[in-house]
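Backbone-to-sequence.
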């Protein structure tokens, strides 16, 4: 394989893994909490203004752009980083735990409990 093509393919694969990690965090957030602030993501292939192989995450007025080339060698850090980024921007005082959710994420349950110490 040509060196440039190989690098591009590697970045493409990293972008796919990055997308899976972002989706995993956002799905866990949505399955665990209702009435929580909206968090959304959009990948670069759907938003031409974004750099190639990137994902924008938005919460309220804040946004974060994750670049695959910057995270490719530390993908295991994406989920904890994104959870903390959302936690710092999404007040959970008005949120509720989804009552019939069978897949509540322990991180978001803990954050909800911190926002609702009375239960």
């Amino acid at each position: 394989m040509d060196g440039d093509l190989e690098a591009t393919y590697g970045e493409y694969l990293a972008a796919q893994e990055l997308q899976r990690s972002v989706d995993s965090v956002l799905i866990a957030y949505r399955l665990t909490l209702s009435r929580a602030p909206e968090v959304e993501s959009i990948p670069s292939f759907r938003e031409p203004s974004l750099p190639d192989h990137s994902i924008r995450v938005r919460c309220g007025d804040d946004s974060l752009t994750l670049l695959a080339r910057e995270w490719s060698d530390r993908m295991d850090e994406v989920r904890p980083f994104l959870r903390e980024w959302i936690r710092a921007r999404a007040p959970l005082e008005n949120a509720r735990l989804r009552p019939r959710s069978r897949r509540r994420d322990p991180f978001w349950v803990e954050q909800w409990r911190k926002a609702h110490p009375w239960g």
